[in-house]
Write a structure and sequence with these properties.
The chain is mainly alpha-helical. The chain has 21 helices and 4 strands. The strands form 2 sheets. It has a two-stranded antiparallel ribbon. A two-stranded antiparallel ribbon has the order 2-3. It is globular and about 70 Å long.
């Protein structure tokens, strides 16, 4: 007589030194020391960071495409796709606009630039000419035209997130509409998606090397001294962003039924990676995978995360209004309430038009300042040296904001698995069952 014995257990706990976030944190510390004590060596390590980011960007387009297509094609009610998109954009506009207001309020209360007393005649206008020129390209029509790829392959070749979205959403709908005939194609795409997420795991093992090179370059090139000279601005920006995450996003998270602190702990590996590389894109594939594991519906993750990376830029928005008023205060220019409200209104639009633009934060700031003639664009030279350090905080805040947005929209759709969310945020993965053991009995 034969029987089956099932042995249940949990995965062996990974040693601390082998955990990715610990390795990335150690790499950031080592990179900072190299950049500080050996600046030339730190600058020379830039290719390590660039190579890792390119490695991740290489798979972002197919990961987004496969997640969206398989998620939409697997939905029985296609009407929900439009509902998800509508709710996502409503959330993006509300929360990101509130971030602009927060930056404006903090700048008026703290006034980080008031003590600088800079003479406008001493500014180096040439230092920001390139950014000012790029800011003229941020038109609504130009932005909309760029969303449409010149070819299907072109969207993947360029790695343009919005263009991939533009093709993936209707393709997923079309695949769902043909019903059973599309099942074989859907099975292939699901298998490909699984393979790509395995590839993400493989590439992420190189994250400490990328963080080491990127952080060593940042400290080596810009130095700690550049931060100290503008400590009021950098400190105010980091404190405001932390306040926004803990209070604003914390309240949103609590109303949705989860803790912002538990979410930050759950995403700690990705957060350290974003800090080390100063790029939220470096952690995009891993974020999508973790949000699905935390119970967010696949279709919601596929729609909200990529669009959020372009339209839900909480950190960038805080930076824009805070930096704009800092420059005015440093130059001794007092902006009227009307000018500040105009600045706010233009920032709401220009922050959306910068989606997918390299160096978007600084370029969008240039575009926004043009509506206030009393503040010279050359004033941006004051913060050029520390912009790299603030870009890390922008990326972190944007990243956290998009994680919260995805869980909120999934909750609104009734597509958030609470048991999975609780297990993930509490660090309690479901037990793994060992393969059945055949036992023969006489």
């Amino acid at each position: 007589m034969a029987g089956t014995v099932t042995v249940a257990g949990t995965p062996a706990k990974t040693p601390l030194w082998a955990q990715l976030y610990v390795q990335v944190l150690a790499a950031i510390l080592v990179g900072g020391l190299i950049g500080h004590f050996y600046p030339a060596t730190g600058e020379a390590m830039k290719p390590l960071g660039d190579a890792f980011i390119k490695l991740v960007k290489m798979i972002i387009a197919p990961v987004i495409f496969l997640t969206i297509v398989t998620g939409i094609a697997g939905m029985r009610d296609l009407g929900k796709v439009g509902g998800v998109a509508l709710k996502a954009f409503a959330y993006f506009f509300t929360v990101s606009s509130f971030a602009l207001v927060v930056g404006l309020i903090v700048a008026n209360v703290v006034q980080p630039g008031a003590a600088m007393d800079v003479d406008p005649a001493t500014l180096d206008a040439a230092a920001v000419q390139g950014y000012a020129a790029k800011s003229h390209d941020l038109s609504v029509v130009g932005f909309l035209m760029e969303v449409i790829p010149s070819s299907v392959a072109g969207a993947f070749v360029d790695g343009n997130i919005l263009q991939v979205l533009f093709f993936a959403i209707p393709f997923g709908i079309a695949l769902a509409m043909i019903g059973e005939r599309g099942e074989p194609a859907l099975a292939v795409l699901n298998a490909l998606a699984e393979a790509f997420f395995k590839l993400v795991g493989i590439f992420m093992r190189a994250a400490p090397i990328g963080a080491l090179g990127a952080f060593a370059f940042t400290i080596g090139k810009y130095g700690i001294d550049s931060v100290l000279s503008l400590l009021a601005l950098v400190g105010t920006f980091y404190a405001t962003s932390a306040l926004f995450v803990v209070v604003v996003l914390g309240i949103i998270a609590r109303l949705t039924g989860f803790s912002i602190f538990k979410l930050l702990r759950y995403l700690k590996e990705e957060l350290w990676l974003v800090l080390g590389t100063s790029s939220s894109e470096a952690a995009l594939p891993s974020l999508m995978q973790k949000l699905e594991r935390a119970g967010a519906a696949k279709a919601v993750v596929g729609l909200v995360v990529p669009t959020g990376y372009s339209f839900n830029l909480d950190g960038t928005n805080i930076y824009m209004t805070l930096a704009a008023l800092f420059i005015a205060q440093a130059l001794g220019i007092e902006l009227t309430l009307g000018e500040q409200l105009l600045l706010l209104a233009v920032a709401m639009l220009s922050s959306k038009g910068a989606a997918g633009v390299t160096g978007a934060g600084f370029i969008t700031l240039a575009a926004t300042l043009t509506v206030v003639p009393s503040v010279p664009l050359a004033g941006m030279a004051l913060i050029l040296g520390v912009d790299r350090f603030m870009s890390e905080c922008r990326a972190l805040t944007n990243f956290i904001g998009n994680a919260v947005a995805t869980l909120v929209v999934s909750h609104w759709e009734g597509a958030l698995d609470r048991s999975k969310l609780a297990a993930a945020l509490d660090g309690e993965p479901p037990p793994v069952l060992a393969p059945p053991i055949e036992a023969d009995a006489d």
